[in-house]
């Protein structure tokens, strides 16, 4: 537990299968060769989602989605309070 003393939650990404028109499929093809959407989610330790960013093409890297969530004010990313991680 000492490693998580000031931690307020967890962030992870997942790929969800997507149906897209053939002319758009190339951008949605994930690492397993099928069309997906890349979704980033944040949850607290009560297993409640506090933020979800969905709709990104399956070929988009997780770090790009995370960076965009941090930089785009309209997404309202839940930054942790001072002293928490």
From TrEMBL:
GO terms for cellular component: nucleus. It is found in: Nucleus. InterPro entries: HARBI1-like, HARBI1_dom. Keywords: Hydrolase, Metal-binding, Nuclease, Nucleus. Residues 11-68 form the DDE Tnp4 domain. The keyword Nucleotide-binding does not apply. The keyword Hydrolase applies. It comes from the Eukaryota. It holds the Pfam family DDE_Tnp_4. Its cofactor is a divalent metal cation. GO terms for molecular function: hydrolase activity; metal ion binding; nuclease activity. PANTHER family: NUCLEASE HARBI1, PTHR22930. Belongs to the HARBI1 family. This is DDE Tnp4 domain-containing protein. It comes from Platanthera zijinensis.
């Amino acid at each position: 537990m000492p490693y998580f003393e000031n931690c307020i939650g967890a962030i992870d990404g997942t790929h969800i299968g997507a149906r897209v028109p053939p002319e758009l499929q190339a951008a949605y093809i994930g690492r397993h060769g099928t069309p997906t959407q890349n979704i980033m989610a944040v949850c607290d330790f009560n297993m409640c989602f506090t933020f979800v960013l969905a709709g990104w093409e399956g070929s988009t890297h997780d770090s790009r989605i995370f960076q965009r969530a941090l930089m785009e004010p309209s997404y309202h990313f839940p930054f942790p309070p001072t002293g928490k991680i």
